[in-house]
Amino acid sequence: MYPFMKRITYWPQLFLGLAYNWGALAGWSAVAGSIDWTVALPLYAAGVSWTLVYDTVYGHQDKRDDIAAGVKSTSLLFGDNTKTVLSGFSAATISLMCLSGYMNGQGLPFFLTVAGAGSAHLLWQLKSVDINSPSVCWRIFKSNAWFGAIIFSAILADLAYDRITNTDDTEEPSSL
What is the 3-class SS of 18-56, one letter each residue? Predict the structure, then answer.
C-alpha cells in the first residue's frame, strides 16, 4: 500500500503508520480477548504519529530520488518546515502514549519515563537531524529503536514498581 500511496498523496507515511500500528489493536485483542478502545485507540494513534516522525526523517534521505521519480512524501510536503511539523507529531506521540497509559491505569514510573526520557529522545532527534544530510537522517531514523526501548522500559518500570508496592497482605504464610 505504501508504494502505491506515494503515487497519489503527499501522506504515504500516514498510511504506513495506519498499517504498521495495526498490531496495537490486534495485539490488545489477542492478549485481552476483547478490546478496550479507551486504551487501544490512543496507543494506536501514538504509533501512527510516531511513524510520521521517523519515516519523514527517513524520507529525507531519498527526497531527490522521489522528486526524480515523481512520487510524493511528507518529507517533500513539509520541506524546510519538517522540524516544526515533526515537533507537533512528537508532542502528539508522547501525549497519546500518556493518555493510553492513564486509561490503562499505569503509574508514575510509566509517565515519568515516557514524558521524561521519551520526550528527551524525540527532542534530541529534532535538534540533531539535518534534513539535507542522508547519513544524519539515517542515524536519527535508526535511533528510533532507542525510543521503542524507552517505551518498553516505561512499561517494565511501572510493572516492577506495581509488584513491589502492591503486595497482598491478606495471604496466609505458606507452611512447610
Answer: HHHCHHHHHHHHHHHCCCCHHHHHHHHHHHHHHHHHHHH
Q: What are the tens digits of pLDDT across the range 105-115?
A: 999 999 999 99
Residue 44 CB neighbour total at 10 angstroms: 21
Alpha carbons 68 and 76: distance in angstroms, whole number = 12
- One DSSP character per residue, 109-129 reads HHHHIIIIIIHHHHHHHHHH-
**Residue-level pLDDT at 161:** 95
Distance CA(129)–CA(135), nearest Å, equals 10
pLDDT of residue 171: 54
What's the per-residue H, E or C state across 52-102? HHHHHHHHHHHHHHHHHHCCCCHHHHHHHHHHHHHHHHHHHHHHHHHHHHH
- Ranges of residues in the chain whose predicted pLDDT is under 70: 168-176
What's the rounded Cα separation, in Å, for the pair 16 and 25?
Answer: 15
